């Protein structure tokens, strides 16, 4: 579908408005009536006309939906927002669910299935609303254990069985507790850990670009600096793209999945229409309603605190999101927005190689803190690269 924004009109807009009305985020067309949208100057002739106009009320409703779902809150309906809107129209049992490679199934009903299987003790993967192979395996195991037809399809008989059984645990936390246990079992040493470093944008996509400073180039340089430090500790550091490449988020996630990565780190810088916007922010998978990647949230917190302390960039905190880069990666993933290139001070600091060294060291220290799990740790901002190397050497002996 085409990207839809305020001022657009047509049947695609009518479809969007209909979904927003069904979610109680937008009044019925009668509320707009024949008045049209004063913000765009588009006049609607009767209720039918109003139904096809992307007006100010529609934009406000889209923003409310995006904020609630952990999407980028821009009021624009692109592929991710449309997929989430369409998926919100389904509840568990409203349609058969199955793993379809050529046409992936996504929606709130899939999310409910994943959470229900998890509550019953089955590993259906991360509750992210995407019906993938791990969800199919969990569903088949459930069907096998309860004497149902083992076809990997969630139809009415499977839904009835799911609803009749009492859960062993409430909520979607068990899958993320497994993530945390994997980190614990991996041990405190960095040697052998496989990390995918993902420099944002690339190729023909510069990302944010101001006064000749491009996000694409800053991210690439940071990735190389981080890669060198990680390899020095014995880690296996892989970069998701080359200097002239700009893969999609799906391709970046697939690269991490194919590599069997333990962690995925995506490096970006931000931009804003206001030159006063500045600072560092970190993001991890989370729906905003309590379902979150335990390890992703923990690592994002470490990175955020370390970079805020070491760089003195404004602390814009950590945030749960349902971006594709989080839902498509099987390992814990974190995205870091390091400074605003639209802010003169942030841009000047990011242009300094010595500053980028500080950022790279802060991220490495954060990964080390994750695997230490609080044992033998040091106060935020005081752990050094030399300390990490000494700890690795001591453990090796």
TrEMBL record:
Residues 253-368 form the MurNAc-LAA domain. The keyword Hydrolase applies. InterPro entries: MurNAc-LAA_cat, N-acetylmuramoyl_amidase_3, Peptidoglycan-bd-like, PGBD-like_sf, PGBDSf. It holds the Pfam family PG_binding_1. Keywords: Hydrolase. This is N-acetylmuramoyl-L-alanine amidase. It comes from Prauserella halophila.
């Amino acid at each position: 579908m085409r990207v839809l924004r305020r001022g657009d009109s047509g049947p695609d807009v009518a479809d969007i408005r209909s979904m927003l009305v069904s979610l109680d985020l937008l009044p019925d067309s009668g509320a707009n009536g024949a008045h049209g949208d004063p913000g765009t100057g588009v006049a609607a002739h009767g209720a039918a006309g109003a139904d096809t106009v992307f007006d100010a009320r529609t934009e406000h409703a889209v923003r409310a939906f995006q904020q609630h779902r952990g999407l980028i809150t821009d009021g624009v309906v692109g592929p991710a927002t449309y997929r989430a809107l369409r998926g919100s129209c389904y509840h568990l049992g409203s349609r058969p669910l199955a793993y379809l490679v050529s046409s992936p199934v996504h929606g709130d009903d899939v999310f409910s299935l994943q959470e229900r299987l998890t509550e019953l003790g089955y590993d259906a993967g991360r509750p992210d609303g995407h019906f993938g192979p791990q969800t199919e395996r969990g569903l088949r195991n459930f069907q096998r254990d309860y004497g149902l037809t083992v076809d990997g399809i969630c139809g009415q008989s499977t839904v009835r069985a799911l609803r009749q059984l009492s859960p062993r645990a409430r909520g979607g936390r068990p899958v993320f507790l497994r993530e945390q246990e994997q980190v614990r079992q991996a041990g405190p040493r960095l040697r052998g850990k496989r990390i995918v470093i993902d420099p944002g944008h690339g190729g023909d996509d510069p990302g944010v670009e101001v006064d000749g400073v491009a996000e694409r180039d800053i991210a690439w340089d940071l990735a190389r600096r981080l890669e060198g430090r990680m390899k020095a500790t014995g880690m296996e550091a892989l970069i998701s793209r080359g200097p002239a490449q700009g893969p999609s988020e799906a391709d970046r996630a697939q690269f991490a999945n194919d590599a069997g990565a333990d962690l995925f780190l995506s490096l970006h810088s931000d931009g804003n229409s206001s030159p006063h916007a500045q600072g560092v922010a970190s993001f991890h998978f989370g729906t905003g309603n309590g379902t979150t990647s335990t390890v992703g949230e923990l690592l994002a917190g470490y990175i955020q605190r370390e970079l805020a302390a070491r760089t003195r960039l404004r602390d814009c905190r950590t945030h749960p999101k349902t971006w594709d880069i989080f839902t498509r990666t099987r390992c814990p993933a974190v995205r870091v927005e390091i400074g605003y290139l639209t802010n003169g001070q942030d841009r000047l600091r990011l242009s300094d190689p010595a500053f980028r060294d500080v950022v790279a060291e802060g991220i490495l220290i954060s990964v080390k803190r994750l695997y230490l799990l609080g044992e033998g740790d040091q106060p935020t901002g005081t752990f050094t690269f030399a300390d990490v190397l000494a700890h690795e050497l001591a453990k090796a002996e």
